[in-house]
Amino acid sequence: xxxxxxxxxxxxxxxxxxxxxxxxxxxxxxxxxxxxxxxxxxxxxxxxxxxxxxxxxxxxxxxxxxxxxxxxxxxxxxxxxxxxxxxxxxxxxxxxxxxxxxxxxxxxxxxxxxxxxxxxxxxxxxxxxxxxxxxxxxxxxxxxxxxxxxxxxxxxxxxxxxxxxxxxxxxxxxxxxxxxxxxxxxxxxxxxxxxxxxxxxxxxxxxxxxxxxxxxxxxxxxxxxxxxxxxxxxxxxxxxxxxxxxxxx
Length: 249
What we know:
By secondary structure, the chain is an alpha/beta fold. 40% of the residues lie in helices and 12% in strands. The longest helix has 17 residues, at 26-42.
């Protein structure tokens, strides 16, 4: 495929696309998770490892987490209700436990070398950017917005939408539509960039968004071809297909 035309917005997946989260084996990861939760529950605060991101207090957490809408999936409504109940008793216990569990993964993340230069170049070229990502185990969305802040990506995205915030996981069409609605951009004038064939590529294609599949040479995955509009090995290659937008006026 050549150059994308009439594109206004570029949406990115987070983990595996912009940020690399090397994952150990399942038993090792589960052990680290349990260890983090145990230390949080029984250890004094000053002996905990520095948090991967700051944990908001009760008022800020309440302001940052929107209530589940009536059409949200039942599991999301139940989780929201549980968070509200626990917060009413302890202020922030449940979010703190979530962070303790996710800390080994979050703290080990590193920005791909091509991520920040590419994102900055797209902003300079006049594109509106967003991030749409699934989050593991229903962890609070502020853990992952904290990652965008940590790697200086947050100011570059107009919209950041996480499954734990909205209640739908990719490839569910509703999470893509919600991001597009917040940007006010039509699907056929948008591009989604991701590394997961089903969640990112098939999901975005299902709502009419152009797709770019990132398959890095050392991370090639087997399985059916998702049929993206474009396949790249590095994010920098996007710049060959998304030229500067014409300035209005």
